[in-house]
Amino acid sequence: MKGVKILFIPLMGLVVILIVLILSYGTLGYSPAEYIRSLGEFLLRQSFNVFEKEWWAGSPEVITATLWDYRGLDTVYETTVFYLAVIGCVSVFRLLQPKLAEITKEKEEYALTVIVRVATKIVLAVIILISINIALHGHITPGGGFQAGSAFAIAPLLAIAAFSRYFVEKMGLKINLSHVLRSLGLIIIALVALLPLFYFGYLLQNQAKPWSPFPGYPIEVSFLELSGSLFHFDIGEYLNVAMGFLAIFLLLSLPERVFKKDMEVVKSES
Amino acid sequence: MNPEHVVVLYLYAALFVVFGISVYGIVVKPHIVKKLIALSILGDTANTLIILLGYRTLPKPWPPVFPELEPSLELIEEFTKLSVDPLPQVLVITAIVINMAVTALLAFLAIQVYRLYGTLDFRKVLKLRGW
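Above: the input entities. Below: the structure tokens describing the complete assembly.
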């Protein structure tokens, strides 16, 4: 056994060195230069080119435009992967008696100091407002659905640490609500992606193209800059990611004794 | 050799050292949570490498966001000449979210393993049968 281990570590070292050599052979040729590759240049030139609208995405934020327009199908599948991962988490942590989760509704005997509680409440409001701002502005300034959802994820985590799981549920952020809103986000994304098909356009079409009869999503409505479908996609993605993280943190903060009680029932039945 | 290229080489070297440490952690450490930490470090290293590849060695490269909502032709040309590559950043956003989802799922599985077997040591878990 020991001989195997002594062989094993140098072998791993060799593998790492080989991977590093292969990667650096592939990457050093492309190492940061003054010029970028032609695909990146195409994206930079076309995404907000108001003079030639054949390939444009209508968004000054090239990253969001690439994410939801040029590579839209990829991102839709990625959103589905996130959705399914949260479903996997929920199914691993399922309770055989859902009523046991009610145990957490008890008096808050051990509270942190007033300073921590007041400061956390102020910071919570700011975090949620800023995350909504990032989501709604994702097509004009840096940001978007993922970033806003990740920013929102801090809020329940902070509330659970400073107060309790019960406090988060009292704020109205319950786990069933998170599942509903998460599914709503996915439905928004699916509808916005499928709508051009009914106008004989193509899947995930954003702006009007010369070869497609779909007129394109509106770029701006009165004074609001919408950037076509990107705005709607960002909202759906924000709901999906933010509520997915909320579900994960609510499940993680279930006390251990709930699961112990749940398991005792299983043991006594078997 | 430009000083910028030397800096880039140092960054490559640092990233590969971190890469080696994370692979060591995944393979050798028996504790499941330590494997999980090493895995997330590996993902972040890969993301940093991809971001580094999209950088432009200009004195002041621009971020890939248009500074104005009503651009002129000259601004579009200047933007194309000065901004960094947007494609690696898009790929990294995708990778980060998938990484988070995988990490969350693995953390849940680790907690479940602890509940069922009472240990997170991989060698002990392998020897146990049922509960």
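Note for the figure: Chain B has a mean pLDDT of 86.
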